[in-house]
């Protein structure tokens, strides 16, 4: 049995080295870049990339490609994406997510389950989003988040994105659980912020999991620990950190 497992691990490692698509369950606290960097180090590949950034606080599906398969990343990045998350009503952060402190609190007077579910209809279809200041969008060659960290706010042009589906899964005020299927370029934290503004009580994105990209599913993804084990069992890597 041990030999069989080792053989399977070795075959997987060889595929990654030659060029493969790897589905990774990105943990919270890791940047998308860090996942790609670990894949390169563990499997000793020179070329690797991902098909759509996940913010460090978020978890879930990250599609990583190595070698010749990196050519497919541009197509993968265009695919629709699905997320499940929790928004917290009555509070606002400057980054629209938990990575910055709450800067404003508002009462939830008059916020009912009916109002929350009714507000969803305003965000279905093609909508315009203003990229958040805490984003990698560039202004004169500099990422907006660098300016935001200095307290600088600049005017940003709205972008059109498409929300294919937006469902409220559960309501436990002040938290609202939801699922969204959307186009490339959609900022879920901006969607949540705008949703809170529409309700009038404000909101920020408390947690987020990406569950699908096109036909790629989180259920089929490997954890970081599993990836590391494949590399060490096959003898690809001596790195343990």
Write structural notes for this entry.
The protein is built from 7 helices and 13 strands. Strands 1, 2, 3, 4, 7, 10, 11, 12 and 13 form a 9-stranded mixed sheet that branches. It has a two-stranded antiparallel ribbon with strand order 5-6. 29% of the residues lie in helices and 32% in strands. It is α+β, with helices and mostly antiparallel strands. The radius of gyration is 20 Å and the shape is elongated.
SSE blueprint and pairings:
Elements: H1 2-18, E1 21-26, H2 32-43, E2 48-50, E3 59-66, H3 73-77, E4 81-89, E5 91-93, E6 102-105, H4 113-119, E7 125-129, E8 138-139, E9 142-143, H5 144-149, E10 159-172, E11 175-182, H6 188-199, E12 203-213, E13 216-217, H7 224-233
Parallel strand pairs: 3-12
Antiparallel strand pairs: 1-3, 2-3, 4-11, 4-12, 5-6, 7-10, 8-9, 10-11, 12-13
Helix pairs in contact: 1-7, 2-7
Provide keyphrases for this structure:
241 residues; alpha+beta; 9-stranded mixed sheet; two-stranded antiparallel ribbon; elongated
Mean pLDDT rating:
90
| Shape type | elongated
Distance between the termini: 27 Å
Share of residues in helices: 25-40%
Structural class: alpha+beta
The biggest sheet, with number of strands, parallel, antiparallel or mixed sense and barrel status, is: 9 strands, mixed
DSSP strand (E) fraction?
A: 25-35%
Q: Round the Cα radius of gyration to an integer and report it.
A: 20 Å
**What are the secondary-structure elements, in order, as H or E?**
HEHEEHEEEHEEEHEEHEEH
């Amino acid at each position: 049995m041990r030999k069989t497992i080792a053989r399977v691990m070795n075959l997987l490692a060889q595929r990654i080295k030659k060029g493969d698509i790897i589905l990774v369950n990105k943990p919270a606290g890791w940047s998308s870049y860090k996942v790609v960097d670990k894949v390169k180090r563990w499997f000793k590949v020179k070329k690797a990339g991902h098909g759509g950034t996940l913010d460090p606080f978020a978890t879930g599906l990250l599609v990583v490609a190595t070698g010749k398969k990196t050519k497919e990343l541009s197509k993968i990045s265009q695919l629709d994406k699905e997320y499940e998350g929790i928004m917290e009503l009555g509070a606002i952060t400057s980054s629209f997510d938990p990575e910055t402190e709450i800067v404003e609190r508002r009462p939830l007077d008059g916020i009912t389950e009916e109002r929350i579910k009714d507000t969803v209809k305003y965000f279905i279809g093609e909508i315009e989003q203003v990229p958040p200041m805490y984003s990698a969008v560039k202004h004169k060659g500099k990422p907006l988040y660098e300016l935001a960290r200095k307290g600088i706010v600049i005017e940003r042009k709205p972008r059109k994105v498409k929300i294919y589906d937006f469902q409220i899964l559960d309501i436990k005020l002040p938290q609202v659980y939801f699922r969204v299927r959307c186009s490339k370029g959609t900022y879920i934290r901006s969607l949540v912020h705008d949703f809170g503004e529409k309700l009038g009580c404000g909101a920020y994105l408390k947690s987020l999991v990406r569950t699908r990209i096109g036909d790629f599913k989180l259920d089929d993804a490997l954890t970081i620990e599993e990836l590391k084990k494949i590399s060490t069992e096959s003898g690809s890597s001596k790195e343990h950190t």
